[in-house]
Amino acid sequence: MAKTKVLIAVKTYPAISVKYDELVCTAGFLEDGTWIRIFPIQFRKKSFGEQYKKYDWIEIDLVKNTSDFRNESYRPVSYDTEIKILEHVDTKSNWLLRKEIVFKNKIYYDIDELIAEAKDRDTMTSLAVFKPTEIIDFTIEEVERDWDKKKLEKLKQERSSNLFAQEDEDLFEVVRKLPYKFSYILRDSKGKQSKMMIEDWEIGQLFWNCLARHEGSESKAVEDVKNKYLNDFAKTKDLHLFLGTSQLHHLTGRNPFMIIGTFHPKFEQQLRLF
Question: Whole-angstrom Cα distance, residue 126 to residue 152?
């Protein structure tokens, strides 16, 4: 079977699942610029050499995920499918090589147009590059601080009953749950205002890094996160958003999209003619 080459652009913050343990949803671009979603992947259980970064080109054996109706959804052929990292695409020349793939196909400016495509049975769009006209605000909301106890207990029981578990499997700890939900409030090209949650791995890691730097002060940590996303990305960068739907809410949610990544090169400097 021919392997699929994917430019990784999205890694969501890990979630836990009784069926699959700890999961990361990965999405990226094929060489022709079309989107693809890869799920499930137990990312932190992959060998170090297989733990890809954002904007790595990888090769992996994939098949259509028949349990997911969304067109872009694929899954690894098996649990232990090898992931081969080919090369990393850097940010030279103001993200030029990344832009060549990310901007290869349609960029959305109208959120209602995108939602209509998501609800259309023919298109069923579930991944997109979106350019907001304005970022109005960045919100921070407290959420449950711990994973569901029943799920954690079931995972623990399943691990302890696995006679073939390796030592590193026994020592594996579920990733810390984020105690906050971060969202952008934005406006599209037609003036419509939306609030969209940010589910990117990077925002979670940024919070933990800031928390460590401020020696456990959550108020200072979330303020740093807000400053990065509101005053840096939204005000000084050419911000585009990677949007994706959840399978659960794709057909039923009024706006099924959430922010699963940011794309933030600097603004291009236009040369003066005179």
Answer: 30
- 207, two tokens: 């919070």
Over residues 87-146, the pLDDT tens digits come to 999 999 999 999 999 999 999 999 999 999 999 988 899 999 999 999 999 999 999 998
Give 92-103 as a DSSP string: HHHHHHHHHHHT
β partners of residue 64: 74
For range 248-264, the mean pLDDT: 94
**Contact status, residue 176 vs residue 236, Cβ threshold 8 Å:** no
- Identity of residue 114: L
Q: Once rounded to an integer, what is the mean pLDDT over residues 195-207?
A: 95
What is the bridge-based pairing of β-strands 62-64 and 15-17? Answer: unpaired
Q: Tokens 């922010």, residue?
A: 259
Q: How far apart are CA 182 and CA 196, in angstroms?
A: 9
Assign 150 a pLDDT band (cuts: 50, 70, 90). confident
What b/e string do you get for 49-85 counting C-beta neighbours within 10 Å, with b at 16 or more?
ebebebbbbbebbbeebeebebbbbbbbeeeebebee
Give pLDDT, residue 245. Answer: 94
**What does the DSSP assignment read for 178-230?**
PSEEEEEEEE-TT--EEEEEB-BHHHHHHHHHHHHHTTT-HHHHHHHHHIIII
Over the Cα atoms of the chain, what is R_g?
19
- Domains of the chain (ranges; CATH) run 4-102 (2.40.50), 108-143+178-263 (2.40.50.140)
Decide: helix, strand or coil at residue 71.
Answer: coil
| The pair of three-digit structure tokens given for residue 53, joined into one six-digit string | 């970064």
How many CA atoms does the CB half-sphere of 187 hold within 13 Å?
8
* Statement: residue 20 has pLDDT above 70: no
- Backbone angles phi and psi of 194, in degrees to 5: -140, 150
Return d(Cα 95, Cα 264) in angstroms, integer.
Answer: 9
